[in-house]
Structures are given as structure tokens and as C-alpha cells.
Amino acid sequence: MTPASPRDSGAPAPGGVMAFLSRPITLFPPGLSHTPTKLLADTALPAPITSLIARVARLTRLWPGEKLDVTRELIAHFRDGIEAGRSPEDLAREFGDPVDAARLIRRAKKRCRPVAWRAMRRTLQVALLLFSLVAAIYSFAAARAFMSHPTIARNYLDELNAPIARVPDSDRAWPLYRAAYLALPALPKDLAADFPNIEPSDPRWPLALDYLAASAKSLDLVRQGSTKPALGRPLSTEFDEGLELHTQFLAGVEPDKARENLRLARNAMRSEPNPPLINLLLPHLGQGRHFARLLALDIEAAVNSGDAARAATDLETMFRLSAHMSHDSFLIGNLVELAINALACETLARVLAENPSLFTDDQLVALAHAAARPPSPISFDGEVLQFDDILQRVYSDDGHGDGHLTADGARLLRSYATSWPSNPDADPWRGVSDRVRDTFEVPFHSVVGASRKENRDLYKNFLARAAAYAAIEPWNRPELSPDAELEQFVSRAGRVRYPLVRILMPALSNAVWACDRAAQPRGALLVAIACELYKRRFSDYPPSLDALPTSLLSQVPRDVFDGKPMRYTLRDTPRGARPVIYSVGPDRKDDAARPIANPNRTPPRWMSAQQARAELQRAKACEIDGDWILWPPAPRTPKSTDTP
User: Fold this and answer.
1) pTM of structure
2) Counts of helices then strands in the chain (DSSP H, E)
3) What distance in Å separates the CA atoms of residue 222 and residue 316, rounded to the nearest whole number?
4) Which residues touch 190 (CB under 8 Å, ≥6 apart)?
5) Distance of alpha carbon 439 from alpha carbon 443, whole angstroms
6) Three-class DSSP category at 325
7) Three-class SS of 507-528
8) pLDDT tens digit sequence for 618-639
């Protein structure tokens, strides 16, 4: 069987490749399908023409079936020319360059391919383009992250220590506190569980008195230190060998083991001329809390022996000691100050409730003035410096306050947190080596993560919001707290974009509420002292707080939950009518001094009015239903306390 003739296929007059391409597509019967080589061998065309056809078919790089079709069509094309009397040389010359002809034929044939193939081809082209784009971005990000390094330009530790260095030695409390700590005896194990809540009726009371006697030197040094105007402790990331060894002694560690622990700890924290602020050691905070507990126990002993002067001195020492704890500008110092101040107020409130006649009028007034001095306002200055210090160790510096994540910085971040995801179990890189992880993760975070300036702006913005939130009266604050705002923002922006902010942002609302919560019992204590002084003048407690003269109480403290004056009532007891000072609590209802039923909610947690309404509709409404009794204090219950 021979191929169809030009006249049968409706081919135009022979010519160049454009004439060939203008031919309609001829569909050959399947029975004619062989191979281009066999097909050319069976034709009678001259050798130059068959060679040209074979070359063009090969250069088209089409599918085998398409090459066979092209071969058949070229055979028909050149046969038409020869039958028209043209020479093979003329036909080959008019056909043109084989490479160009093959390119044009390939393009024409591909346009005739199925739609599904063309869609798949376009998809592959787009995928390849995207892959190339991602590869280019990754290469750029990897080169940028691995070839750049942080510039540690500022020594924040030196800046913090500069004003401390200017404090005269005679004004420093730290040397006395340090000596007091080193003079501390080990706390007996029998006292540790409930320290300092041990009463004279407790069978361990003689043991407590022995411990106080052994701690007399420490107590005297703490009293002396509290009178100094400044703490004067230089900030450092280095271990104080004497303090560390004594801490381990107090914990019952053998001397040889203690020295080995200290050696290992020092090896784990290498010494640097410009160490990170995040490695700052603040041992005085734990020591201050132990001193406060020791003073509380000494006050119990003084009250039991009728030594009002010693009890008053210890109380004033606790108030002054608390103020020294926040001299380092860090939030943790503020919180320890609040805790010690709250313990002092609680101790004084208990003495006043159980031994109202112990202190003289002058002693009560002096103690009222000591308690009335509010703790330092919550400050995030130290946190800002710490954040800036980490930024300069994690990001590059473009000289204008901005920069990108570096590989060195990513490794440092990993050392600060178990992993970037907040839940270690959700870490996709768990079990992968750091080298492999860096290869893929660092460039990704370098591109997707926020820049140095964006991180700092976000961090400072939310700290400013927290400060503004704290400045608003609690009862007028918005429903959405800074923590909730941050969580919403991070959820919208993506958790991988601001890992540093998520890791280092303090619990803003908790810090603000800690300040508000401490202010309530302190305010109630001042009211109770005024009521006691009123009773001494007029033989009875005031019928209402409005009856208190301003000389005894300049202003009734406000209830943090509704902004109204603290509530006051007189309750009959075996010792006669006694005052009860209370807050309406989170439910915002005055329940006539009926306490909250759930003792685990004293003091209650802060919640907005809207949250309280929702809570009251739940089955566990008893957790907030009732009033927060501020004075007299609740009976003491033993509580566990760690050994210092």
C-alpha cells in the first residue's frame, strides 16, 4: 500500500517549510505505522531528500507517533515537488534550514496535542517556575543567614551596673545581707514544711525558738541592712562561690559534692566580657524572701513574749527589706518586693487581730506609715533591656536599628527554649540533628520571621499597652487584657513570625493583677489600724468608715472590683463587736461579708465583669460567689515552703 497522493490529501503546491506547515493534517491509517527509518527506506525519494527528512524528524524531538506522522507528511510534500518537475536540490534549498524547520514543525504539532496534556505541561511549567523561585529565595536567605553574624555593640550589664557603682559603700545594704545569709544556720527539716507558720501551741515551737536563737546574728545584720538607702549589689552572671556553697550547705549537700556542683555550673555558663542579660543571676531575691519569713517567725516569738518593740522593729525591717528587692529594675524584683510587702502586711494584720493591745499608739502610727508606702510600681525597664540585648545577639545590624535573623542567633534562641514551637511535642524537628535543622529552618525563619525592628516594635508596643492597662483603675479596665491581645495578634500573624516575642514576653496581666491584689489587704490593714486607734480614743469601733476622722485615715481605699470604698461591718464575737473589712470580690455583689465558699480562691483571681457573669452561670459558681474578706485574716493553715 502506498501513501496518499498530494491530490488525494488536498496539499497546496510544493514549496518551503511554510508551505509544508500550511498543509492540512493528514491522518494515516494505523496499518501504515512503522518507523521513520523503515518508512524512508520504503520510499523512492532521492537520498539527499530522505536524509533531510530523517534529520528534520529527529530534530523535532516529538513523540514517536508524531515523528512518524511528520515523516509521512514530509515524504508526501517532497514527492509532490518531484512530481511537479522540481529538482531535489531546489526542493531542499527552498525548504530552508532543517533546525528552524524542525522547531516550527514541533511548535505546530504540540498545538495539536490533547488539552489534558497541555494542561499538565502548563502545570509542570508553573511548578518548575515556583520551585525555581523558592530555590532562589532559599539560596538568598541561606546565604544571608549563614554569611552574616550578629554585632554585639552594647554592654547592657555595664550600663546597669554604672549607677550601682556610684553608690557609696556606706549606703549599700548588700554587704550586710550577704553576711547575714552566710551566717544562716540550716533550717531543721521538721520546720521546713510549715516555715514560718509555726505557732507557740505547736509542739515544734521549742525547735523554732532554737533556730531563731541560732539565727540571731543573721537577723541583726538584716535589720542593719534594711536601714541602708540602696541595695548596692552589682549585677553579674558569675556565681558567688561563697553564697553558692552556703546555699548547698543549707540544702544538705555534702561539701565535696557542693564544690563539684559549682564547678559543673561554672563550666556550663562560660565567662564572657559582655555576657547576655538573660544569664543574670539574682540570688538576693531568694535570700530576701527567706529573710522575710525568718522575720515573720521572729515576730511570732516577740509577740508571744510580749516584746512589742522587737515585733515593731522586725515589721519595719520587712517593709524596708521589700523595697530593696526591686532595685535591679527587673519585673521579678518587683514581684518579690510585692510578696515580701504582702507578708509584712499579713503578719501585722494578724498581730493586730490577735493582740490588738500589743503596740502603743505611736508604734501603730509608725507601722501604719511603713505599710502605707506603696511598693515600687510595676516596671518593664529591665525586660526591655534584656530583649534589646537578645536582639543584638540574634539578629544582624544594618546600622539603622534593623536586621535579619542569623544562623548564630537561631542557635542561641534554641538554647533559650526547648524549641520554637510553644509545645515541644508539636516540634516537627524533634529528633533531627541541629545541622540538618539549621539548613532548612534558619533560612525559612529568616524570610518568614519578623525583622529585628518589627520584633522590638511589637515587644515595646505590648509592654506600653500593659503599662497603660495598669494605669487604668481596675474597675474601668477593658475586657481584653494585654495577654489576650497578644495571643490574638500572634494567632493572626502566625506563631512562626514572632518566636522571640512569644518566648520572652512576661505574663503582663498577672504582673498587673499581682500589684492590685497586694494593694487590697494593705489598704484593709490601714483601715484596721485606724479602727483600732479610733477604739482606743472612743472605746468602741466606728459604726461606719465615714465616722473615721481624716487624722486617722485620710481616705477609705477603693475596692478593686467595683471602685467603691471598701466595705465595713461590725460582727458580734465572743470578744465583742469586731470590724470586718471586705471587698465584694469578682462577682461584684455585696454579700454582707459572707466569704467565698471555695478557700482555694482566696485571694480570688482577677476577672472582668463579663467573665464573672459567665462564671456565675456555671456549676462551680461558688468559686467566686461571696465576698473577699480582707480583715481579720483567715486562720493560719500550714503550707510547704522550700528550703532556702
Assistant:
1) 0.79
2) 27, 3
3) 11
4) 204, 207
5) 7
6) coil
7) CHHHHHHHHHHHHHHHHHHHHH
8) 755 567 888 999 999 887 665 4
